[in-house]
Amino acid sequence: MKIGLYPGSFDPVTFGHLDVIERSRKMVDKLIVGVLQNRQKTPLFSMEERVRMISEHTKKWNNVEVHSFTGLTVDYAKKVHANMIVRGLRAVTDFEFELQLAQTNKVIAEEVDTIFLATSLKYSYLSSSTVKEIASFHGDISAFVPKDVEEAMKKKFDEQERRRGI
C-alpha cells in the first residue's frame, strides 16, 4: 500500500494546500495530511481548529485522513508507515530548503522518500503568512481560502482587536 504524508502547519489552509492535497491523493492509496505544531510560529488557529477545517474540505475524498502530530515529520512518517512525504514547491527559493530537508530525512529514514509537487500556477504566489497579513488588515482573502476559513479568520482577528481595545 502506498501511503503519503503531506505535512504542514496549514495556518490557515489555503486553496494552494487543497490543490496539493487533491493532486497528491491520486498518487497514493492513502494520503495523511499531518497538521503539525511549528515551534517557530505562533498559530492563529489551534491545532484542533486546523484539523477540523482541513477535514471539512477533504471529507469528499475517501483516501484522505487528517491528523495532528508533534515532533519530527520523518518520525511521524515512519509511525504512520508512509512511504513518501509530499511537499509543495512555489518557487526556486522553496526548493533549496526543501531539498536539504528531504536529504536529511533520507538519512534518518532511508525507506521514506520525498516527492515535490510544483504548485499550480494560479497558487504559486500564495502563502498562509500572506493570507494572514491581508486578513489582519481586513483585506479581501476570498480568492485565497474557502469561505468558512475566511469567516473564521475574520472572527479571530476581530477577537484579537477587541482584546487589544482597538
Automatic annotation (TrEMBL):
Its main location: cytoplasm. The record marks H17 as: Transition state stabilizer. Pfam families: CTP_transf_like (PF01467). One of its GO terms (biological process) is coenzyme A biosynthetic process. InterPro entries: Cyt_trans-like, PPAT, Rossmann-like_a/b/a_fold. It catalyses: (R)-4'-phosphopantetheine + ATP + H(+) = 3'-dephospho-CoA + diphosphate. Its cofactor is Mg(2+). Its EC number is 2.7.7.3. Residues 5-133 form the Cytidyltransferase-like domain. Pathway: Cofactor biosynthesis; coenzyme A biosynthesis; CoA from (R)-pantothenate: step 4/5. Substrate binds at S9, K41, T73, R87. ATP binds at S9, F10, H17, G88, L89, R90, E98, Y123, S124, Y125, L126, S127, S128, S129. GO terms for cellular component: cytoplasm. It comes from the Bacteria. It is found in: Cytoplasm. One of its GO terms (molecular function) is pantetheine-phosphate adenylyltransferase activity. The keyword Nucleotidyltransferase applies. Keywords: ATP-binding, Coenzyme A biosynthesis, Cytoplasm, Magnesium, Nucleotide-binding, Nucleotidyltransferase, Transferase. Homohexamer. Reversibly transfers an adenylyl group from ATP to 4'-phosphopantetheine, yielding dephospho-CoA (dPCoA) and pyrophosphate. Belongs to the bacterial CoaD family. This is Phosphopantetheine adenylyltransferase. It comes from Oribacterium sinus F0268.
